[in-house]
Amino acid sequence: DAKTTQPTSMDCAEGRAANLPCNHSTISGNEYVYWYRQIHSQGPQYIIHGLKNNETNEMASLIITEDRKSSTLILPHATLRDTAVYYCIVRVAIKTSYDKVIFGPGTSLSVIP
Amino acid sequence: SQTIHQWPATLVQPVGSPLSLECTVEGTSNPNLYWYRQAAGRGLQLLFYSVGIGQISSEVPQNLSASRPQDRQFILSSKKLLLSDSGFYLCAWSLRREGGEAFFGQGTRLTVV
Questions:
Q1: In the beta sheet, which residues pair with residue A63?
Q2: How many angstroms away from the CA of A66 is the closest CA of chain B?
Q3: Over chain A, what is the mean pLDDT?
Q4: pLDDT tens, B13-66?
């Protein structure tokens, strides 16, 4: 079962920041938070991941709360091409463990012109 | 760089016919490999994952099987397709290292008629 909860859907105006929340209250100390997105009829695309610290890359920023029970994915300037389903996932990804990547239903983000 | 190949992109098969979907990864060795299915309008369901040649774990009972004859080759099969096997099938891989993100193929859209 997925260990995360996300809102079913969100809207965001084009050019504004999109803030997608995720709750993972049962996260373990060795579990990472990952974000993927899936544009219709394509395979999921990796966005970003983090363990404790906030992370930023060319696509997005990831803000993880100090207790690690929730996080927010930030798309700083949303475009129409960012319309997709966004998945928040927690997973253990250490060398000797099975690494089952389990997806929940995700958040359907609609960027509106 | 690593790439994942999945084919065919689309497939229409009659009920009762066999199925073989192939996925290969290039540019890495000893990856974890995964098969997912996404029914229309639904989330991603993990079907199988593999941590090595001949090592397959099944997540859900079903009409499908998986095999890993080579390190970077993952095959999804069925002896007799059912209508309920229709869906979007995705192959993915990840490195077995801490924080290793998973990468997805572009998927095969299977329609059983």
A1: A72
A2: 19
A3: 90
A4: 999 999 999 999 998 888 989 999 998 777 888 899 898 999 998 887 778 999
Q: Over the stretch A61-83, which tens digit does the pLDDT of each residue have?
A: 999 999 999 999 999 999 999 99
- How many angstroms away from the CA of B36 is the closest CA of chain A? 10
**What is the token pair recorded at B63?**
């009409």
Whole-angstrom distance, CA of residue A1 vs CA of residue A30: 18
* Among B44, B49, B94, beta carbon nearest to A103: B44
Q: What is the Cβ-side half-sphere exposure of residue B43, based on CA atoms within 13 angstroms?
A: 19
Q: Is B102 on the interface with A (CB under 8 A)?
A: yes
Q: Are B52 and B30 in contact (CB under 8 A)?
A: yes
Across the interface, of B99, B107, B109, the residue whose CB is closest to A32 is B99
Contact predicate A34/A49, CB 8 Å: yes
